[in-house]
Automatic annotation (TrEMBL), chains A, B:
Protein's organism: Nocardioides anomalus
Presence of the UniProt keyword Transmembrane helix in the record: yes
Compartments (UniProt record): Cell membrane
Species lineage: Bacteria, Bacillati, Actinomycetota, Actinomycetes, Propionibacteriales
Gene Ontology cellular component annotations, sorted alphabetically: plasma membrane
Membrane-spanning intervals of the chain: 45-63, 75-94, 100-118, 127-148, 154-174, 195-216, 247-266, 278-295
GO MF term (any one): transmembrane transporter activity
Protein name: ABC transporter permease
Automatic annotation (TrEMBL), chain C:
Keyword Nucleotide-binding in annotation: yes
Domain of life where this protein originates: Bacteria
GO MF, any single term: ATP hydrolysis activity
Bilayer topology: Peripheral membrane protein
Protein name, UniProt field: Sugar ABC transporter ATP-binding protein
Amino acid sequence: MSENTTGAAGPASADTARVEAAAEETAREPNRAVALFRSSAGRNTGLVVALLLLCIVGAITAGDRFSSSDNALTILRLAAVTGVVSVGMTFVITAGQIDLSVGAILALSSVWCTTLATQQTAQDSHWIVMVFVALAVGAGCGLVNGLLVAYGGVVSFIATLAMLASARGLAEIISNRKTQIVDVPGFVDFFDHELFGIEVQVYIFVLVAIAGWVLLNRTTFGRRTIAVGGNPEAARLAGIDVKRHTVMVFVLVGLCCGLAALMLVARTTTGSSTHGTGLELDVIAAVVIGGTLLTGGRGSIVGTVIGVLIFTTLTNVFTLNNRSISEQSLLKGAIIVAAVLLQQRLASRNSST
Amino acid sequence: MSENTTGAAGPASADTARVEAAAEETAREPNRAVALFRSSAGRNTGLVVALLLLCIVGAITAGDRFSSSDNALTILRLAAVTGVVSVGMTFVITAGQIDLSVGAILALSSVWCTTLATQQTAQDSHWIVMVFVALAVGAGCGLVNGLLVAYGGVVSFIATLAMLASARGLAEIISNRKTQIVDVPGFVDFFDHELFGIEVQVYIFVLVAIAGWVLLNRTTFGRRTIAVGGNPEAARLAGIDVKRHTVMVFVLVGLCCGLAALMLVARTTTGSSTHGTGLELDVIAAVVIGGTLLTGGRGSIVGTVIGVLIFTTLTNVFTLNNRSISEQSLLKGAIIVAAVLLQQRLASRNSST
Amino acid sequence: MSGIVKEFPGVRALGGVDLDVRAGEVHCLLGQNGAGKSTLIKVLAGVHQPEEGTVVWDGAEVSLSSPQASLKAGIATIYQELDLVPELSVAENIFLGHELSTVGFSQRHRANSLTRELLARLGHSEISPGRSVGSLSPAGQQIVSMARALSRDTRLLILDEPSAVLDQEEVNNLFRVIRGLTAEGVAVVYISHRLEEIRQIGDRITVLKDGRTVATGLPVSETPTAELIKLMTGRSIEYVFPPRPTAVADQPVVLEVAGLSLAGVFRDVDLTVRAGEIVGLAGLVGAGRSEILETVYGARKRSTGTVSVDGRPLRRGSVTAAVKAGVGLAPEERKSQGLLLDQSVYSNITVSSMDRFARVGFLNRAGEKHKASELTTALDVRPAGVTRAARTLSGGNQQKVVLARWLLRDCRVLLLDEPTRGVDIGARTEIYQLVRRLADSGVAVVVVSSEIEEVLGLADRVLVVREGRVVHEAPSTELDESKVLDLVMEGNVA
Amino acid sequence: GNEKNDDDQDLGGGTTQADSGSNDEAGDKIVIGFSAPAADHGWMASITDSAKKVADQYDDVELRVASGTNDVNLQISQVETFINDKVDAIVLLPFDGAAMTPVALKAMQAGIPVINVDREFDDPNAARVTVLGDNYGMGVSAGAYICSQIGDKSDAVVAEIAGIDSLPLTQERSQGFKDALADCGQDVDNRVAADFTVEGGEEAAANLLQAAPKIDAIWNHDDDQGVGVLAAIKNAGRDEFFMVGGAGSANAMRSIQAGDSVLQATVIYPSTQAADGIKLARLLGQQKNMSDLVEVEVPRTVQLYAPVVTKDNVDQFIDTAFES
Ligand SMILES: Nc1ncnc2c1ncn2[C@@H]1O[C@H](COP(=O)(O)OP(=O)(O)OP(=O)(O)O)[C@@H](O)[C@H]1O
Ligand SMILES: Nc1ncnc2c1ncn2[C@@H]1O[C@H](COP(=O)(O)OP(=O)(O)OP(=O)(O)O)[C@@H](O)[C@H]1O
Ligand SMILES: [Mg+2]
Ligand SMILES: [Mg+2]
């Protein structure tokens, strides 16, 4: 298609240059898999390198205890809950918003789906009831957040901060600040079940990540999310219902919180108003380290997943090495900065070649 | 000033009219006090109304226990530490950045200025040594944040999140996770001293707020902060050294943390690595409720101060009314949203008249 | 449209405007900066809701309550401010809001091939549909905007100053496309400050002044230019360039640029400007002129070369140093690079000279406002109040505010990138005279413009830039338009 | 009624007995202010709940509960509010004892007796009565029990899952644990810290189990986070070791009773301390004394005992245990 310059009355040489550039760009396209890998590896080289370095450190300092497949599964399992929420958060941040209430929504969902009444109903019918309750609570909280932000005009930082306080308060009231233990047969079994030696939770994480990637990069919804975050005015002028879209994004992250709540309930066999305390910062950090712009308009699910893995692996390596929490936290700061700087240098070198 | 129209080819009559219009707009200015009041009351009506409503609720439900001057002082004293940090944070957010590490910096400052060594030096010379140490630690951490953000290109959310982890880790290591008790004579006396029945801490808060207001609204530093936050590229092209300015803003908030650390050390007679836990969210919430734009370019010190007072008064009214903790947190969310919505409605009505 | 009234807080932008557009015609909208042209078309596009007035579409009264409603009715708009999402690809931007999809999944291949067709129709098949829009030059982005308007099933196409960022070739291209559309019966509303374009493409003209219709339905062919100008400005203006002084050769060299390069963009640029001299840079869009100015200014880090002002070399990559040495830049994109949109006009004007109004860091705001009002009055900025936010000014008036900033600063060197883009005829003459007056007072001026006429008329000496190299340099008296065009395109005279 | 004579059991939060003589007869109406850290785990929630329950039993007590907080600045202000309010007594479980000392002194100087619960002030004059749990003793009990079980097995692997590491109480517990283990020649091979929550417990334990492929005994500081620890152990399919809990939740005791998990024992850390505090505050406010003692005045310090609960004696404790 590079010959189609008829009609452009431009001078030949200038056009040739342009055409060459264009041809070069399109030449890569057929080889999609390679292009995909190149672009996503390119954007995330630094992160991948940081993760690898971390693994090398882990393998050297903790040997087999780190490199065992059991340990890899432990890391993945620990990453699963944060990971599912982080995928949802990637959409919120890409859309130019933020959600501080994810931890509280998770707590409320976990409590609501493990109340005596819910468990009773679940026992009488099927544990799927608990799943519905958790997802509905998550989506409901997300809906309130979204409506406040999009139609109430409350900045998302404040709206979700308010939700953080309220949802946790409500979770405490419902649970009477007691840890609610699950004894619905089937529920825990299902989520903690192993398939080919890998737990269902890990599969859920992987599936959510893939679904998130497709949604962000291959669907109208995802493209609109980027548009809404990148230039809301332009999105509006293009006929996108920015407000409705914003609401949907918050509902999406709410759903992710509901799902994560189910996973955490299964893992801990409890619902509790203290679940997910401080989760918001972990999640946002993972998303932002992964290269999603806090100002909106650019999001990377692959980056987010690597971000989550970096944090989980970090804790794992520290624990295997029996480091104190204080040392962990001192080093964690340094490592975060190092990872980001590395990522930057490598990404800029990559784009300039 | 209206005669300088030589060369502009416009006809006389049009020009005269225009100059008059321009003059008219500037004519209001002599009456500065009124204008000042109008503009700042106008922008903050909703907040003021929210605060008043809260006070009315307090007075009705708790009567004299709320309305006493002792109680007012209690509120102000509680507001002082958060308030000092919030004034600094207003600059950071106005400059388009965020600082999540304020609580950790406060902890580190408090620990560093109360180590045995520091206290020994202070006892041998003067307690002012502790003041220097706290301010230096605060400014130092701010400097690191600023350099990472401005010259390292790390987004402030991540850079300060890393600082949050590292500073708290370091504080724990230095203090060996013990609470360090102050027994330098003079230090606590000075900060807890009363002047005309009001504590020095309250005076410090008031002074910092006034200084902050003047700095933001009446100096080149403030004007540059607003410019840098509003449109960094335009600010750069207008000849402002955006990077250096960003560093200065982080140092400023670091200094505020150091000062707040001193106040908290005096108030608790201890330095501890747990001081200021979760402070960052409280501070950012107060600043944002106060009308400072999270995206930068607009900041209001008056709004911040009212924001801090709203949160402190809320807690006070709750305590006086003996509500359960969970109810408090449920209601707190609702009240935050209500205050913001009120503020919006009133501000927009005010600006349209 | 009839009796449209639109008010913004404190401004009555439209005070009863009538406009009727017929199928298959190009209806031109004229008016000075701030006359309300953009506002009027935003009402048509559903962006603004008018306080009064009715819109009749196809014989029936309609309410255009949102951009969606307008788009659905078949009204497509290219806005004055670029309205693209920089992070999305060309194809994604074009189909934003009406994506090609099967149950929500994007049909990227179809979108890409349709995009290729659209771009080819606009004569720009070199733009790859997968490229992200943020990496395109302003001109490239304008083309994407046009492709987007064409991608819709359009019955009325509105173009708000589309030619501002385009060079002559591109404009001809655009006109060809517009003619093709009108032949199919599409109605076009065309806004431009370049009257010669109106002559080429327009059928009928409506003139706005201060938010009111002063004339409507004027046939282009029968209305003399002088009358149009009179209608727009209320007075007669001659579109003139100020006279050049005779002797600048003996003045001292103020700006000296030697061997300046920026890797991948331009190479070996030498440039000397004497006090009182105006040097023009001519070239095609994308030739690298903006980058030359920005590099001289220190906004980009030069790869090689030296820049000195009054004989003193400037530090590499430091705008602060350049400003201190007395260099000023009025950037190409005033919204994103020039202005603090939410700040008042006066603080936009004084931002680079703040220290002059400050004592130990404390600002004298009354002094600032006073000085700024003098400048806005002198430059005829409307409305004249200096405390309103820069965002609320019309495009041309915003440009004047940026110029006022550097007037206040008393620069030694002034770099102007497209200083009259989007500026109306009256103000344009004022700006020319202003620039000349500045030069006469000893300032060295460098002007970049895509309008060859402007470069030739304003500058004393012209450098022609082509693909990042200076291919010719001559006093403007020795050049004419066709010669420059040749140089710009072929570079063969060099 | 109840069968034990210990003070702390007598004042047990969940029970409704009122048989300790004339002290429970209604006296002057008094107002008690109560402030504690955030109820972010079961034990702390139970502290507040049992305090409220005890206060509800007395018509002559009005309890003002300040919002639980881990922010010392806020907690100071709450006490200041109580002082302004001129309450008759203040029961204070400080987030950090040393940090709350000045304001407690201020209350005492204002004539309001302060009952210090659990975390001690650093000035004896800052409290009229101190009701203390025995954190060090808890560690010692846990360590001693583990010693008794593993004997002098030289290569035994002992692990510890602590609570919030930056709290002094955690450090005291760990110190006690370490000292007791040293007595039988053992040491802590792996140590992780959680945050007193179920979630934190699960996460810390999952990593810990990975770090130590073979373990003989684990001491987990807190039964609340223990629910998560047990879940992680079950997930990992490990059972080569036994576990000792801490605090003494009803869950843990039921589990010990049933003997269906690695949890063999738990060390009680009474969650009724604040309830005791309320009772003492009432006595002080009404100028009564402790009728079981000969003393005319309420004593200065009450330190609670940290018994080890095993399958053998669990029935004795399970009724007073807190539901986490
Ligand atoms: N959002 C707004 N808020 C307030 N005033 C506005 C706003 N937009 C436009 N105006 C005012 O409305 C008037 C008309 O502006 P408009 O942008 O329509 O002018 P224009 O004819 O397009 O000028 P130009 O040729 O410079 O683009 C101006 O006085 C402008 O200051
Ligand atoms: N941010 C950027 N990244 C990469 N290339 C860029 C960037 N900005 C501009 N360019 C390239 O630099 C060259 C010159 O850009 P530009 O269009 O600004 O030139 P110009 O001569 O100033 O034209 P104009 O008439 O638009 O001012 C073009 O090839 C353009 O694609
Ligand atoms: Mg316009
Ligand atoms: Mg350019």
